[in-house]
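[job 0417] fold request received: Serine/threonine-protein phosphatase
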Amino acid sequence: MTVTFSVPRFDLDYCLEQLLKHKPPRLLPPQTIEQLCHMLKTELLKEANIMSLQSPITIVGDIHGQFHDLLEIFEIGGTPPNTNYLFLGDYVDRGYYSIETILLLIVLKLRYPQRVHLIRGNHESRTITTNYGFYTEIVTKYGGNTEVWSHITDLFDYLPLGATIDGNIFATHGGLSPSCQQLDQVRALDRFREIPHDGIMADLVWSDPDPEIMDFKLSPRGAGYLFGYDIITKFCRENDLIQLVRAHQLCNEGYISYWGGQCLTVWSAPNYCYRCGNKASVLEITHSNMQSKTNTEKQQQVLPGQYFNVFDASPENDIDTESGKGVNGFITDENVNDSEIFADFFKSIHRGKQAEYFL
Ligand SMILES: [Mn+2]
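[job 0417] inference complete; emitting structure tokens
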């Protein structure tokens, strides 16, 4: 499908209208996207590698191109600028609407820079998006034009790697790194580059907590590490933190709490890939001053002032799944049910792109 555009308009409210007021959402012209990316890069240059944010704030996990479900998040969690949002990355790949999803987030960030915060996930990368759907989606929707993909993946290099909330919660896409004992080591990195294969920057977007282990272990994903209770406890103590909040892993109930709430996983793509049948959530943090817990907080094993707002897939998705669209990226029926560890892009490259895992 080739899309032709009239004269590009550079007006953020106009862009929002194109994306929000039409079904399906209207794509923005390549020239407009180039301008938006340029403008956002200029803004992100000023952001630290780890942003300092304050509650109240709502934290969103992986979205993976599920545009209708992103709109559902705004429905249940409130819309910017009324609600502050921190998005933990993995905006693109897999779902049918990666380009619409990232465009909406880019425009919202530019429109409400103090209310919308975006960090980088392992999918915000040239290599991963080439293999898992975003590149192909752009080529298809923009009639063979790959410039849009270049502009957006260049922008990904500018995204911050994490955030602190009220100074005592650390949020990042994946997890901890054996090369990083102090948050200041993250602050000192040169992040304006493609995600490397190893080192602190790679581990932050690739690692996972594991309640079964102690210390660090190489991750079966082929990048990043698994880390145990001793590691996170030490990291929190040395950095004056009470908690790590992260995304990156599919959760059937939409979230997982590890170690009594010391580490939380928030997953925001319901019925992932339109077939996993999982719930999704956003994490609402109203304060972090450790007052006594409510019953819901005890039930969800979160800290005082925190609430997982759980939701199901938007009915809008049915229109696409019933029309028999295939999901983006490599996927097979066997690996789609693997809800624990399901990635390995480095290995998949060596296997000649025959992915056995998915991410
Ligand atoms: Mn991820």
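[job 0417] notes: The chain has 13 helices and 14 strands. Residues 4-9, 329-359 have pLDDT under 50 and may be disordered.
[job 0417] exit 0
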